[in-house]
Specification:
single chain; alpha/beta; TIM Barrel; eight-stranded parallel β-barrel; 10 helices; about 15% strand; binds 2-phosphoglycolic acid
Length: about 250
């Protein structure tokens, strides 16, 4: 009932012309892929050109961040309505880099989730523990807080949860399929407590050093419905291989 969900998070990479170059090579390579939700999140400055390139394709557009107000005197911020207007279907909220460098708390993340959903955007909500939290046995309490607070006062529709252990992001140190499965199963249980059976329709995806070499074994995990890919989504060849993963 859940379709694989494979998303690229380009972070602060690619100019407008680099975005065009990537997409004109990538789109034909995945146009036959009908059974996977493919999502690309370029930087804000590339959204307009990406929306144009992706129209009438099987690839959806996402933003990497959003503010929680609709409009007004918030210099430098971008509203959910602006993202809808430019053609975004999803937005990534609460990425660990935003929590770490821009001091986003679970409360701020929740305001963003609610504002994005109200505007009609799907939300990729990121949660995950850092190394110290994992080593001191706090992984599950971090996940519980991230899910419960992040989704407070909101329903399940249009929600995707990205489990992203911070120690695995950009480090080349991927969670093992067992570690990922255990976290995903915990998140699924948490969602069931909040939403009952409807929780079973929510995709829970994994992020953190996903590559063409580990995608197949990750996707074989029972509760792992897809991936959020940083570094390996910047090259056409490697992201194509990830989208066209082998079902083991
Ligand atoms: P990475 O980033 O694939 O480069 O580890 C993943 C992410 O931060 O979403």
């Amino acid at each position: 009932m859940r379709r694989p969900f494979i998303a690229a998070n380009w972070k602060m990479n690619k100019t407008v012309s680099e975005t065009q170059d990537f997409l004109s090579a990538f789109i034909p390579e995945v146009k036959e892929v009908k059974d996977v939700d493919i999502v690309i999140a370029p930087p804000f400055t590339s959204l307009a050109v990406a929306a144009e390139e992706l129209s009438n394709t099987n690839i959806k557009l996402a933003a990497q961040n959003v503010f929680y107000e609709e409009k007004g005197a918030y210099t430098g911020e971008v509203s959910p309505l602006m993202l809808i207007d430019i053609g975004c279907k999803y937005v990534i909220v609460g990425h660990s880099e935003r929590r770490q460098y821009f001091h986003e708390t679970d409360e701020i993340v929740n305001r963003k989730v609610r504002a994005a959903k109200k505007a009609g955007l799907g939300v990729i909500l990121c949660v995950g523990e850092d190394l110290e939290e994992r080593e001191t046995g706090k992984t599950f309490s971090v996940l519980e807080k991230g899910v419960d607070k992040g989704l407070s006062e909101t329903d399940y529709e249009g929600i995707v949860i990205a489990y992203e252990p911070i120690w695995a992001i950009g480090t080349g140190r991927t969670a093992t399929p067992e570690q990922a499965q255990e976290a995903h199963e915990f998140i699924r249980e948490r969602l069931r407590l909040n939403y009952g059976k409807k929780a079973d329709s929510i995709c829970i995806i994994y992020g953190g050093s996903v590559t063409p070499d580990n995608i197949d074994s990750l996707m074989a995990c029972k509760d792992l419905d897809g991936v959020l890919v940083g570094g390996a989504s910047l090259k056409v060849e490697s992201f194509v291989r990830i989208v066209r993963f082998n079902r083991l």
